[in-house]
Amino acid sequence: MLTIKQILDNKEAVIRGLQKKHFGGAVEAIDRVLEINNERKAAQAELDNLLAQIKVLSKNIGGLMKEGKKDEAEAAKQQVADIKEQTKVLEAKMAEAAEQLKLQLYTIPNLPYDEVPEGRSAEDNVVVKMSPRAEEAVAAEVGDKVPHWDLAKKYNLIDFDLGVKITGAGFPVYIGAGARLQRALINFFLDEARKSGYVEVMPPTVVNEASGYGTGQLPDKEGQMYHCTADNLYLIPTAEVPVTNIYRDVILSEKELPIKNCAYTQCFRREAGSYGKDVRGLNRLHEFSKIEIVRIDTPEHSAESHKEMLAHVEGLLEKLELPYRILHLCGGDMSFTAATCFDFEVYSEAQQRWLEVSSVSNFDSYQANRLQCRYRDGEKKIHLCHTLNGSALALPRIVAALLEDNQTPEGIRIPKALQPYMGGEEYIK
Q1: In terms of Cα–Cα distance, which of 280, 207, 194, 199 is closest to 241?
Q2: C-alpha to C-alpha distance for 388 and 115, rounded to whole angstroms
Q3: CA 150/CA 277 separation, integer angstroms
Q4: CB atoms near residue 311 (< 10 Å)
Q5: Which of 250, 330, 365, 370 has its CA 20 to 30 A from that of 244?
């Protein structure tokens, strides 16, 4: 969340940043923050004054007792007791104001960096790179390529109807070579992350409310998360949540940074209101596999970390021989918590459309302030960290693109980088 210092130092710049994200009621939200903060400060000043009075009176009581002025000493003691009752009221008022301030700040998104493009929706995102394969695929004439849901049935790879029977729509069952392909991709992505210096962790896929608030999924995405109401726990929408929360309420040494973690987990998203062709087959699921990369870094190095993460994801798509493009998201299309974000999309030749497979974001200190994730520099001063994460990669749409873009008369061609993970086989037949 934003810090009070950010708002006090440059209120107008904060409001402009929120408006760039198309956050409605930016002025009112910031004015309310300042109003609550002023109430808290006023209570603090009054409390400090009362505590100073108690200090003076307590010091006088001893002198009065020594002088034998017992009645005056007792009166002073009563006065101290009365003031202490007032301080209790003020302390409760301050605690309430602090809680209100935190809740108000939770409702305000992160500020976008200056270089984030202006825009309201996905149509305003800026394509910063398109791979040669993507240029060829987009320019190619529409052929007779079959969509992945038909290929999955033909090769007996994925049973969507069986998933509906067991659970419901959006929960497919992977079978045979389909399940093997999932496992191959998971291992490939994890091995590539390890080669790039990421330390693998295997976190829980269910988190508590504090973890959801720590990374900003709550209260912003509460309706998109599966909520286990009996225990007030949430199924994770991404490994970002448990992995980043490892560092909640932790003070790191600057020498430890950047911390680089990766994790494979199942992810769960309700995707309420999703329907139509955009959700057919693997295009949008309620449960899916994903490998996440997470970094904790210093403010001075986080931009470099972001570039390295983007290069890592791009390298994965190159090795999988998939046509892709990279988009810099505009202010209105970025997530609630991101300061800047780049999306990777692969081109589906069968569907003639782009499929998002990764978002790589820098959150600046926004998540760290919620998490109280800090580091101590060489001069023993404590600062907020920067947090970053990205999908490396999400499997469903990667699988969809691999099936659709590699269909041949011999079967589904397996990219060379993936063949060792598929027992050396060149085709799914």
Answers
A1: 207
A2: 17
A3: 14
A4: 11
A5: 330
Q: What is the per-residue pLDDT for 297?
A: 98
Per-residue pLDDT tens for 169-219? 999 999 999 999 999 999 999 999 999 999 999 999 999 999 999 999 999
CB atoms within 10 A of CB 178: 19
Q: For 395-407, what is each residue's pLDDT tens digit?
A: 999 999 999 999 9
Q: What DSSP assignment string belongs to 288-302?
A: EEEEEEEEEE-TTTH
pLDDT tens digits, 75-105:
888 888 888 899 999 999 999 999 999 999 9
* Average pLDDT along the chain: 94
Model's pTM, two decimal places? 0.92
389: enclosing H helix or E strand: strand 386-394
> How many CB atoms are located within 10 Å of the residue 242 CB?
23
At 143, the pLDDT band (50, 70, 90 cuts) reads: confident
3-class DSSP assignment, residue 412: strand
The pLDDT assigned to 423 comes to 96
What DSSP state is assigned to residue 340? Answer: E
What is the amino acid identity at position 140?
A
CA distance 329 to 41: 38
Q: Are 207 and 237 in contact (CB under 8 A)?
A: no
Distance CA 317, CA 137 (A): 15
Length of the chain: 429
Q: For residues 204-235, b (16+ Cβ closer than 10 Å) or e, as one string?
A: ebebeeebbbbbbbbebbeeebebeeeeebbb
Cβ-contact 65, 73 below 8 angstroms: yes
Rounded to whole angstroms, the Cα distance separating 23 from 29 reads 10
Identify which of 403, 296, 340 has the alpha carbon closest to the alpha carbon of residue 116: 340
Query: Phi and psi at residue 372, in whole multiples of 5°?
Result: 55, 45
Residue 140 tokens read as 């190619």
CA distance 205 to 236: 5
282: alpha, beta or left, given left = phi > 0 and alpha = psi -120 to 50?
alpha
Separation CA 114–CA 122 (nearest Å): 18
CA distances from 251 to 255, 256, 401 (A): 12, 11, 42
